[in-house]
Design brief:
Length: 133
């Protein structure tokens, strides 16, 4: 068996009126998407894809919804597997677990590429989508 990096897409929805919490933003939209890469030990790309699909469906049922510190219900739903790639060896610290190539234009800055391709959430928003333990 080999190691595979599998990129998964989740949809995160926040429902309900947000209570203000000191020094934290209240968002004016309620749908986010989360990409993550998970490591899977499998016999083939197809096997890694299949194992991940089953595991992600189980995790979605297991974790369901929760209420964040703003009083909103946060629901994560598994959407799909985006990509799957075989690692070149055993994972270790600073192992490359995933790599994607895409076409860019010479005259576009790295900041513009990041903004256009990822449209990332600022770090302070991430806490609004995480479960408080």
């Amino acid at each position: 068996m080999d190691w595979y990096g599998v990129k998964v897409l989740e949809k995160i929805t926040l429902t309900g009126e947000a209570r203000p919490v000191q020094n934290e933003p209240v968002l004016d939209f309620n749908t986010f998407y989360r990409e993550k890469v998970v490591l899977v030990k499998a016999d083939s790309v197809r096997d890694a894809w299949h194992k991940t699909k089953i595991k992600e469906s189980e995790l979605a049922k297991e974790h369901g919804s929760f209420v964040n510190r703003h009083g909103q219900t946060v629901t994560r739903t598994y959407q799909d597997i985006i990509e799957c790639a075989k690692l070149s060896g055993e994972p270790a610290e600073y192992s490359e677990v995933f790599c994607t190539y895409f076409v860019g234009m010479d005259e576009v800055s790295a900041d513009e590429v990041i903004c256009d391709r990822y449209n990332s959430c600022p770090g302070e928003w991430i806490g609004l989508m995480e479960k408080n333990d």
